[in-house]
Specification:
Length: 381
């Protein structure tokens, strides 16, 4: 029998990239693990950019990401992000299971930046992990010995296409009002390098949010114990501070969240208040938007919600939908029924959306919710 001649010509890389960019995260992850050659293709910058663009524009669109912390580790789910949910009388969406992690147990999430999550143990500051919840990839970041860090922060330089982890270390007792900032910078070879800088002594007390290459976070500046908003330029690697009227001017019992409000820095504060003998009769929401960062001018909007339109209990503001400007609340813990709430400031409408898919999680597991999550294949080397 005559053997068929085998065609050994490889498929052009540009065709492979085109095919993979239209595939699911699971398929791309499987392909990347097949060989070193396959891994080199999915780690190409042009592929990751194309895949991210199509993940945002494809029918699935931006999604909600749920990070559930239980005694075994972390589980990740994502669900459809309803557009204009206030136009529908009742809505329930299904959350799809993405990945589960038992290999590392970092109790705190320090934020989501461009589809990557940063985890740490704030109590010990000895472990930091970056992971992609869609692909299941993660990497431990090595730590400097004999240095105690505060909360780490993750930023992204959209021009240089580079992630940077900002670590602020505690200054020794009696040191001047400056401290050493140490950052790990992933290089093109996948190696992590450290650089040292000196900044005004301050202590991050919130998650960071990265907007157009600037990493914002709330910090306490020593000397006056005043809360300020730190602004770290990820590309140029300099640090400035904004007066935090949006933080210090509200009720002491309020919770605060830095948000991206239509490309501008925003701060949302919320707290329960009571009347007619009821301790929790309504929820008050204060929205501050940075109008001019040079003049440090803010716009303020106040809203009130009666208890009959919202779940009384542990809820938090988790972000703002970029396409609609809707402010999103989420329950903080799993329960028999889990809800996400959408508030449209322009229409003054409030809608409750049920989320299904957490039934297998144990009771009272902590949930961190993120908006506008785009499934991306950022290959962590």
């Amino acid at each position: 029998m005559k053997k068929r001649k085998r065609n050994s010509d490889p498929l052009p890389v540009d065709i492979i990239v085109e095919i993979l960019s239209r595939s699911s995260n699971k398929s791309v992850a499987t392909f990347g693990l097949a060989s070193k050659y396959c891994a080199s293709i999915v780690s190409r910058q042009d592929f990751t950019e194309l895949f991210l663009t199509r993940s945002i524009t494809r029918p699935r669109g931006p999604r909600l990401l749920f990070s559930v912390k239980n005694r075994h580790g972390w589980c990740f789910f994502s669900s459809h992000q309803p557009q204009n949910p206030d136009t529908k009388p009742s809505l329930v969406v299904k959350a799809d299971f993405l990945k589960g992690f038992k290999e590392f147990v970092c109790p705190e999430i320090c934020g989501l930046v461009s589809s990557l999550l940063l985890f740490t143990s704030i109590r010990t500051s000895k472990m930091q992990v970056i992971c992609n919840p869609s692909t299941g990839q993660y990497r431990r970041l090595r730590q400097r010995k004999k240095i105690n860090f505060t909360r780490p922060l993750l930023g992204y330089d959209p021009i240089g296409k580079q992630y940077k982890v900002l670590n602020i270390c505690n200054p020794p007792y009696g040191s001047p009002y400056e401290e050493e900032g140490i950052r790990s910078l992933p290089t093109t070879t996948g190696e992590l390098s450290w650089r040292k800088f000196w900044f005004l002594t301050h202590y991050p007390i919130s998650e960071g949010i990265c907007i157009n290459g600037v990493l914002y976070y709330v910090a306490i500046v020593t000397g006056g114990m005043n809360k300020m908003i730190a602004c770290f330029n990820v590309r140029h690697e300099n640090l400035e501070f904004l007066k935090a009227h949006a933080i210090t001017g509200n009720e002491s019992s309020s919770s605060n969240k830095l948000i991206n409000y239509k490309g501008k820095l925003g701060v949302i504060s919320w707290y329960w208040y009571g009347f007619d003998g009821r301790p929790r009769s309504a929820l008050k929401l204060c929205l501050w938007i940075l109008k001019d960062d040079k003049k440090q001018e803010w716009l303020q909007h106040n809203y009130n919600f009666p208890v009959n339109v919202i779940v009384e209990g542990d809820i938090s503001v988790v972000g703002v939908i970029a396409a609609t400007g809707e402010i999103v609340f989420s329950m903080d813990y799993t329960f028999k029924r889990f809800f996400v709430f959408y508030f449209n400031p322009e229409r003054n409408t409030f809608k409750k959306v049920g989320i299904q898919g957490f039934e297998e999680s144990e009771n009272q597991a902590r949930v961190h919710t993120f908006v506008d999550y785009a499934e991306d294949f950022n290959f962590i080397r």
